[in-house]
Amino acid sequence: MFCTVSHASKIRDIPDLRRLRYNAFMSLRHKILHIISSWESGVGNELAELIVRLPRGEFENEVCVLAGSKKRNIPNTMTTTLHTRWSFDPSTYFGVGRLLRHFRPDVVHAWDAAAQLYGTIHCGSRRVIAEKRVNSPHPLPRGEGTLFSYLDRKTYRFIVPRQNHSLPVAKTSVIPPAAVSIPCVEPIPAEKLLEKLGFPLVEPSGNYYPVFQSQYEPARRNYKPLPPPQTPYLIGVILPLRAEHNVLDALWVFETLNHVHLNFHAFIIGDGADREQFLRYRDRWKLFSRVHFLGHRHDSHRLLPHCDVLLHLSPSAECSGTILSAMSCGVPVIALETPESREYILDGTTGILIPDEGDFRFYRRTAAKRTLYLLENKELRRSMQIAARDHVANEFNFDTAVQRRIGIYRELLRVPVHGTDRCFF
After folding, report:
1. How far apart are CA 197 and CA 184, in angstroms?
2. Which of 158, 258, 329, 423 is 20 to 30 A removed from 90 (C-alpha atoms)?
3. End-to-end CA distance of the chain
């Protein structure tokens, strides 16, 4: 009888033993808290891909999203959204503090300036890694500059895409930007894709006028009208819908394409505070049948390979990862000339750059002409697809960037820390 009871107790204890072993296994993993301003930012896809590729037996991840209504599910990862409303929100400040006390991470990885602000003031004895994507040529205001100088002193390591002389060399790691791998999808005709998305086909209202020709002079009207192509061209725009990303300039380009009776459809993927304003401009310019706002989509990687051209007119370095993603899946890119786009695109070989000079009317006309030129030259688009895909595979490999970040995590975890977990303020 004693043996029977003992045997039964052992059977009862098996789930507890498994739970203890699982908890012991979990306690051996290092905890990393990733803080990001929103999933709509340019580094959202990069963060999601990095977490998926981190060794699960070595790292435990949690994501803190400061703002944004969109949710994203990452396998085996807890996500917390704090709904920030102002540039410095007290509720977000206390929310990040509660999350740090509950999760108790070994490393805090801040993916942008706002994330560094909220993560560093609470870090205490924790190691903080800050991504520095933007190098501003203009000095910051006195108060703001003093604040970020203080935060930089409390940061253990900076990750920059290129050498930054304003940061201490001993605390800086240079990791070149990398393209998030996009799975190959079978291309489908534009008509079927539009039908799948629920957008009707629209016939052009007249003959197409090739205004990109060098001999075109509007005063003499010496152009020759051409019949519009039967298959519509697809143009993609993937940007946050805010005024600083020049979405209005892209709408102006689409209005020009519609004015010359080009058969095209444009997909604008993203969300933001100025969405309603851009919708009013689209309707005022009668582009509702040509330009489609799809909102923030997690399956943008499935739509991007079907586009003929990606139009990227944003000067922000945080959104430049979209250029690499398009090039990696063989989509020619027309981008505003910035230090980041010059690094990614070889003008005329892997894409087309629009010089950022003169007033806004100059580069709007230039963007419209070069978009028309690229759409009408099928062989040029095909050569750019091959060249862009090879250039990204050789120079901007995402697997290499992931391994280098893992190396930084392991290096910092070997550094002894001192002090308490109290916040600095």
Report:
1. 20
2. 158
3. 64
Q: Could you say which architecture CATH assigns to the domain 29-178+399-413?
A: 3-Layer(aba) Sandwich (3.40)
DSSP per-residue string spanning 251-292: HHHHHHHHHTT--EEEEEE---TTHHHHHHHHHHTT-TTTEE
- Burial degree of 383 (CB within 10 A; 0-12, 13-18, 19+): middle
For residues 242 and 420, give the distance between their C-alpha atoms in angstroms, rounded to a whole number: 40
Q: 358: which DSSP letter?
A: S
Q: Do domains 29-178+399-413 and 190-396 have the same CATH topology?
A: yes
What are the two backbone dihedrals, phi and then psi, of residue 57, each rounded to the nearest 5 degrees? -75, -10
| Surface-to-core class of residue 77, CB atoms within 10 Å of its CB (0-12 exposed, 13-18 middle, 19+ buried) | middle
Q: Would you report the helix, strand and coil content of the chain in percent, each value rounded to 5?
A: 45, 15, 40
Indicate the residue type of 417: V
Of 133 and 252, the structure prediction assigns the larger pLDDT to 252
Here the tokens at position 11 are 């059977």
Element containing residue 81 per DSSP (H, E): strand 78-81
What's 69's DSSP letter? S
CA proximity to 352, closest of 360, 362, 363: 363
Q: What is the DSSP string of 289-343?
A: TTEEEEES-TTHHHHGGG-SEEEE----GGGTHHHHHHHHTT--EEEE--HHHHH
Superfamily of domain 190-396: Glycogen Phosphorylase B; (3.40.50.2000)
Q: Give the position of tokens 């870090």.
A: 123
Where in the chain are the domains?
A: 29-178+399-413, 190-396
Provide the token pair at 389.
């895909």
Confidence of residue 311 (pLDDT cuts 50, 70, 90): very high
Query: pLDDT-based confidence at 291, cuts 50/70/90?
Result: very high
Is the Cβ–Cβ distance between 109 and 32 less than 8 Å?
Answer: yes
Per-residue pLDDT band for 218 (boundaries 50, 70, 90) equals: very low
Task: Extract the tokens encoding 264.
Answer: 């095209």
Q: Amino acid letter at 93? A: Y
Distance CA 354, CA 345 (A): 11
Say which DSSP state 228 is in. Answer: P
Which H/E stretch holds residue 95? Answer: helix 90-103
Residue 220 is encoded by which pair of tokens? 């003499």
